[in-house]
Amino acid sequence: xxxxxxxxxxxxxxxxxxxxxxxxxxxxxxxxxxxxxxxxxxxxxxxxxxxxxxxxxxxxxxxxxxxxxxxxxxxxxxxxxxxxxxxxxxxxxxxxxxxxxxxxxxxxxxxxxxxxxxxxxxxxxxxxxxxxxxxxxxxxxxxxxxxxxxxxxxxxxxxxx
Length: 161
Prior knowledge:
Blueprint: H1 8-11, H2 18-24, H3 30-37, E1 42-46, H4 52-59, E2 63-68, H5 71-79, E3 84-86, E4 99-105, H6 113-123, E5 124-133, H7 141-154, H8 156-159
Parallel strand pairs: 1-2, 1-4, 2-3, 4-5
């Protein structure tokens, strides 16, 4: 079985409908964006996609460059103000550029863990940050309550646990 970073066809399939991807993908919590942006000016967004995290970081005062392997996703991001270069992070050429932070929202699993870490280390300024994050889905409390009631009603053996 291929490791995620080897599944290029899957990784680059999201651009099939970049507008829908952008419209339906959740944004990141403001507190997370503020924490990342604190004391940071230049950010490299790995797997920038349509620019969801990049636009939030730009709004927080950062200059952001995206690196995105899917040209359709990068084009959508550019239309919405996110400069992006089309490449996998591992193959991307930094051309001497360095950054205060390298971020990857919902994307680091598509990066080769060894090559990606080495590339991040090369493009970070001293004291720079590698920030890897994902959205975490949490079931609303009302759904948990209903689910517990349903499970207790149909699966009596589960009640005693």
